[in-house]
Every structure is written in structure tokens, then in C-alpha cells.
Specification:
Helices cover 2% and strands 45% of the residues. The protein has 403 residues and is an all-beta fold. Strands 1-11-10-9-8 form a five-stranded antiparallel beta sheet. Strands 2-28-29-30-31 form a five-stranded mixed beta sheet, with no helix packed on it. A four-stranded antiparallel beta sheet has the order 3-34-33-32, with no helix packed on it. It is globular. Residues 1-24 have low confidence and may be disordered.
């Protein structure tokens, strides 16, 4: 692996930080930003935002001859999103106008990006399908540094605020997890497992220090010390997975290619519960989103499911028109019958047939839906009262509360 540092651009970026990004939290994304692939450091897929239903299309923009396979990230009124044909876009949240773009040679961007927190260099980090991780100046799109792995970057990077400087955690299909200095991209440590890493790393803060979680294609959940890169424990599961885990308390939640859904107690290094496959071919490629007592996940068996976090009991199952590889997002919702001070939890979901739905998180009942036409392989982002999602026909959609 090779680090390629572009020193003259780095100097400019460090002195021209621009507007402050909202710092990602462990439990939920702030209401005005979606800084990481799953919103928060713990990968909960949860936003502090409250949306008033019904939603309406604010705008959409179609990019010709390309497709999107990543979750957008959002900060300070800007959407950051790469397409599968090698262009990384910075778009205005207000109207979708291009603020800047970068074209990679012979590469695509299947991975979500990550926005750096304030204070610090104003960067957006993203990996491509050739294994190159780039840091862009958020204001100008200039490349600040590059770091090379030997495999595709499928899961989004995670930026961990820590002393003496912020760190970037990024997994690669070369079976390595790299920890980099945010400011210059230099390697702090690297940890390797037995097979590909396709998920985004997530983090929990414990009494013993920050712990990083990787669900691997090697059929194990890996728990790694964030400071040193040393593995604390590896818990066997029933097969490979590329989904990003979600952490709540002492438990980590994720599904597998074999169709089982797990809750792992990482303190006891044991399975807390396991939901067996409901039917053959039910692989989970959707990452889960969490409420306080439910875990909500999409299934390739054309459904969205909810399990009780306590014991894995299936709370509800909502059939969809297409398979659900896109990861759901949990928000608060209100409508004309509910006061804004009393929001109800809801899940925003999308399927491969192009259907977007808002489901009541408690019951699974539909509250709003929209037919976008093109299918979705990646989930939405929520920020500043807007829902942004990108489709496999090259369209970026933005929704807001109906006027």
C-alpha cells in the first residue's frame, strides 16, 4: 500500500477550512447533516431529524450514462456523492446544482463518502473501486491526499474524532482495515483479516476505550481496539457478510448472506440472539437501522423486517415490490394530527423496483410513498429537513415537506 501526498494542495486546505461540519455522534446523525454512510459512528442509521408528512419532491437531477450505488453524505448545505463511472459530485442541497466535481481515471465510486468534523481541515473522504482513498477540500474539490489499498473500497470511511488528531478508518476488499491520520492520510495502523471487508467500520465508546467493529466476508465479527489496531475478539457467525453493523449498548446487529440476522454481545463475545432465515435465498445486503427497541432491515426477499432488539422476536414484516438492498434510515415524523413536540419513529426505505416508502417504525404501516422509476441499491440520507437518495438510473432525488 502506498500513500501519495500532494503537499501544495494540503497547505491550502488546512488554512481554508470553510463552514464547520456537524460532528458525527455515536448514536445518531445530527438533524442538519448526514456525515457518514450510516449517519453515526455506531452505524445506527438514525437521524435526529423530525420530518412533517407528507413529503413532496423538491427536485431531482439525472446524470446521463451513469448509475449511483452509494449513500449520499450531507453537510453545510452540500451533498457529496460519487457515481459508478468515476465522477465524484458536490451538489447544492437546495437545488442539486453542481458546486464542483472530480473525474477519476478508470475508477468508479461504489462507496459512500465521509465528511470531516469541525474543528480541523474541511475534508470529504471517499474510496473508489481500484482501492484509492482520496481526501478532497470540501470547498474547492482539490485533492489533498491519496492513500492506496490493494482492493475495492465498498464501505464508506468512518472519521473518528480522537486525540491528538482525527482518524480515518477504511476497510478494503484486500482484507485490511486501515487507520489514517485525517490531516495528511498517513497510516497509523493496519489490521488484516482472512477475507474481504465490504462494510463500513463502526465504533462504540466503552470503558476500555473506543472499539471498532467489522463484519467480514470471513464469517466473523471482529472487535478491534481503535487506538492500536489490535483485535480484542472475533465472534464466529454462520457465513460471510458485507453489511455494516449497527451498535446499541453492548450489542451489534447485522444480517448475513446466509439469511440469518444476528445480535452479538461484544462484551461477552457471544451471540445474544439469532433470527433464522424466514425463507431460502433471503440474503441480507441491507444494513440495519435502530430505534430504542427495534432493529429494522431490508431483505432480498422483497420485504422490510423489524426485530425486537431484546430477543429477536419478529415484530413486523412489510412486503415491498422489489428486493431491499438499500439500508433504511430512522427519523421522527409528524403530520397534521400530531404535534411537532411528539414525533413518532419511522423508517425511510427504498427498493430495487424504485419504490420509496415511509413506514411507521412500530407497526410497519405505510405513511407515505413515492414511485421513482429507477431502482435503489443504496439508502437515503436525511439532513436539514430533506431526504436525498440516488438511483441506479443516475438520478439524485430530493424530498422535503410538502408546502
Amino acid at each position: 500500500m502506498t500513500l501519495r501526498l500532494l503537499p501544495c494542495v494540503l497547505t491550502l486546505a488546512l488554512v481554508a477550512v470553510g463552514a464547520a461540519a456537524q460532528e458525527p455522534t455515536f448514536d445518531a446523525a445530527p438533524a442538519d447533516a448526514w456525515p457518514l454512510a450510516r449517519g453515526s459512528l455506531a452505524g445506527t442509521g438514525r437521524s435526529a431529524a423530525v420530518l412533517a408528512l407528507p413529503l413532496a419532491e423538491a427536485w431531482h437531477r439525472t446524470f446521463e450514462k451513469t448509475a449511483f450505488g452509494a449513500v449520499p453524505v450531507i453537510a453545510d448545505g452540500t451533498i457529496y456523492l460519487g457515481d459508478l463511472d468515476g465522477t465524484f459530485h458536490a451538489l447544492a442541497l437546495a437545488d442539486g446544482a453542481t458546486q464542483w466535481s472530480f473525474k477519476a481515471d478508470a475508477a468508479g465510486f461504489p462507496s459512500a463518502a465521509a465528511v470531516s468534523p469541525a474543528p480541523g481541515p474541511g475534508l470529504v473522504i471517499v474510496g473508489d473501486d481500484t482501492g484509492v482513498v482520496r481526501a478532497f477540500d470540501r470547498g474547492t474539490g482539490k485533492v489533498v491526499w491519496e492513500y492506496e489499498t490493494d482492493g475495492e473500497i465498498s464501505g464508506g470511511p468512518t472519521i473518528l474524532p480522537t486525540a491528538p488528531g482525527n482518524r480515518v478508518l477504511v476497510g478494503s476488499q484486500d482484507a485490511s482495515l486501515s487507520c489514517l491520520n485525517l490531516a495528511d492520510g498517513k497510516l497509523v495502523w493496519k489490521h488484516s483479516i482472512a477475507d474481504q471487508i465490504r462494510c463500513a467500520p463502526v465504533v462504540a465508546r466503552t470503558a476500555a476505550g473506543d472499539r471498532v467493529f467489522i463484519a467480514g466476508c470471513d464469517g466473523k465479527l471482529h472487535v478491534i481496539d481503535a487506538a492500536t489496531g489490535e483485535e480484542q475478539v472475533a465472534v464466529p457467525i454462520d457465513g460471510p457478510t458485507g453489511t455494516t453493523p449497527a451498535v446499541l449498548g453492548d450489542r451489534v446487529f447485522f444480517g448475513t448472506e446466509g439469511g440469518a440476522f444476528f445480535a452479538i454481545d461484544f462484551v461477552k463475545a457471544a451471540t445474544a440472539w439469532r433470527a433464522a432465515p424466514a425463507a431460502a435465498g433471503q440474503a441480507y445486503r441491507s444494513s440495519a437501522a435502530l430505534t430504542d427497541d427495534l432493529v429494522i432491515v431490508g431483505s432480498r426477499r422483497r420485504a422490510v423486517e423489524a426485530f425486537a432488539t431484546a430477543d429477536g422476536a419478529r415484530s413486523w414484516r412489510r412486503p415491498m415490490r422489489g428486493r431491499v438492498d438499500a439500508s433504511p434510515v430512522v427519523v421522527g415524523i409528524t403530520d397534521s394530527r400530531r404535534a411537532a413536540a411528539d414525533p413518532r419513529p419511522a423508517a425511510i426505505v427504498a427498493d430495487a423496483a424504485g419504490k420509496i416508502m415511509v413506514l411507521d417504525a412500530t407497526t410497519g404501516d405505510p405513511r407515505w410513498e413515492f414511485d421513482a422509476g429507477g431502482g435503489f441499491g443504496a439508502g437515503p440520507a436525511v439532513a436539514a429537513g430533506r431526504v436525498v437518495i440516488a438511483s441506479d438510473d443516475g438520478t439524485v432525488w430530493c424530498f422535503a415537506t410538502a408546502p
